[in-house]
Amino acid sequence: MSAAGTKTFAAVDLGASSGRVMTGRVGPDTLRLTETHRFPNRPVHLPEGLRWDILGLYGGVLDGLRAAGPVDSLGIDSWAVDYGLLAADGSLLGNPVHYRDRRTEGVAEQVWATVPPDDLYRATGIQYAPFNTLYQLVAAQGTPQLAAARHLLLIPDLIAYWLTGEQGTELTNASTTQLIDAHTGDWNRPLADRLGIDLALFAPLRRPGDPAGTLLPAVQERAGLPGPVPVTAVGSHDTASAVAAVPAGRGERFAYLCTGTWSLAGLELDAPVTTGASRAANFTNELGIDGTVRFLRNIMGLWLLQECMRTWELTDVTPLLADAARMPALRYVVDAAAPEFLAPGDMPGRIAAACRATGGPVPRTPGEITRCVLDSLALAHRRAIREAQHLADREVDVVHLVGGGARNALLCQLTADACGVPVLAGPAEAAALGNVLVQARAHGLPGDLASTRELIARTQPLTRYEPSGDPTAWEAAARRTEDARPLPA
Question: Each residue of 54-86: pLDDT tens digit?
Fold first, then answer.
């Protein structure tokens, strides 16, 4: 399948706006990633709510595997929290609900009446987000679909099941459900029992690197692959795979930013931080590769710009970025983590309204709004990284910015300026690289996490951005966007 000393792996990487199948050729000094197929991920508005087109995504996966050709293994990662319900015979009970669907409105208060927020955070270490799987399952209680369900599979595990016929629940993604104990890495059964959530719906836990089955003969035939083809569990939450691909040196004091539809900003730790101050700052403790903890905050990310472009009916971001670069810095800023930006629809109008509410100037042109989004994201990155350092009592010397935002030079430079430390941007396809490298380790290519990161640093293009500009301007802008919550004492 591959040249001597190298192996080839397929990474199925499903994002909130598109999916792709990448092939990675990996050897002791080789790491080459090739995109074999990219396909859109278009949620569907149905009368009952917002749903994922999971069948379209699965078809895209099969097309991508057909284009990939012979591989030594494949792995699957995707966004977190969402799931499919299966009947006793394994058939899917409807399209999975989208995390931006409104069904969880008001559910958190219902949960907190049974399990107070402090208790919930100490038990799971997971931030409050209205779309966490726990809230989705409470919202689904009493529905015919949940009553008929006998199995529940998170999105990457559902795709793996259709490919192999075997069910499992990969741990890094399971940790985002808010049903895993942050300290033991196992299901928190007392919590689930208090909320009436049946953990028997979930398949047994898998860890990154575990075998996840072999392609079914019919799937193998449709994909045109010689077999057998093993499927390997990876960090199936795409952020877990992306953080595994951060090209940090051994002993380097770093923060990371995984940028795309969301921005995930934080630190890699050995143990969770479940203090009251951490809960108040809404930091989450998700499980990562090799027993690590991803201590981070979710920020709306480039979703803000993606939704603006949808409203403007534009597909090419390049002219917008050029126009934004000519705009005055920090004239228009909003809190990019504000919940009013979560739902789809008229994002330019909501951004203008947020600026108006602060009493500041209001952006009106696409260039002004784009600059507002990028300045505001840089400020949100700054706040999250500074608070993470404070809460975890750890300083950083560099920010590694990975994911699609690494291609956005203006965002990278603004983040360096806002944070006051260098930003090392790249790789852009971090989730796929992390996916591939976990497979490589599981299939005989030696190396610990630090070694795989060194391989990425040697083989992938990276760009360094040094901080510039006036730090006091960023401090003043930060005061305009920060909410009433102070830094933890």
Answer: 999 999 999 999 999 999 999 999 999 999 999
In the predicted model, is pLDDT for residue 1 greater than 80?
no
Cα separation values, 291 from 26, 171, 252, 287, Å? 23, 10, 18, 7
Polymer length in residues for the chain? 489
User: Residue 264 gets which letter from DSSP?
Assistant: E
Q: Concatenated DSSP letters for 90-106?
A: S-B-SPPBPTTSGGGTT
Cβ neighbours around 177 below 10 Å, total:
27
Q: What is the pLDDT of residues 109-164, one digit of tens each?
A: 999 999 999 999 999 999 999 999 999 999 999 999 999 999 999 999 999 999 99
The model's pTM is 0.92
Query: Which residues pair with residue 230 across a beta bridge?
Result: 214
CB 338 within 8 A of CB 380: no
Beta strand pairing call for 7-14 and 423-425:
unpaired
Owner of token pair 């700052």: 281
Q: What is the helix (H) or strand (E) element at residue 159, kind and residue range?
A: helix 155-164
- Please tell me what DSSP assigns to residue 150: S
Torsion angle (degrees, nearest 10) of CA 394, 399, 403, 409: 160
72 is catalytic: no
Q: Tell me whether the omega of the peptide bond preceding residue 28 falls within 30 degrees of 0, making it cis.
A: no
The pLDDT assigned to 359 comes to 84
Which DSSP category does 460 fall into? S
**Nearest CA among 200, 223, 99, 202 for reference residue 157:** 202
Cβ burial 115-139 (10 Å sphere, 16+ → b, else e)? beeeebbbbbbbbbbbbbbbbbbbb
Long-range contact pairs involving 441-450 (C-beta distance under 8 Å, separation at least 24): 441/209, 442/73, 442/209, 442/210, 442/211, 442/232, 443/7, 443/9, 443/72, 443/73, 443/230, 443/232, 444/7, 445/7, 445/26, 445/27, 445/28, 448/290, 449/244, 449/289, 449/290, 449/292, 450/250
- The end-to-end CA distance of the chain, in Å, is 57
Beta-carbon contacts of 141 under 8 Å, excluding residues fewer than 6 positions away, are: 196
DSSP state of 85: E
Angle at 239 between CA 299 and CA 444, to 5 degrees: 165
Q: Which of 84, 81, 86, 77 is nearest to 232 (CA)?
A: 77
Cα angle vertex 341, ends 338, 343, to 5°? 135
Q: For 237, which DSSP code?
A: B
Predicted confidence (pLDDT) per residue in 25-63, tens digit = 999 899 999 999 999 999 999 999 999 999 999 999 999
Examine the pLDDT at 91 and tell me if it is beyond 90.
yes
Tell me which residue of 17, 21, 8 sits closest to 159, measured CA to CA.
21
Exactly one of 72, 82, 238, 375 is catalytic; name it.
238
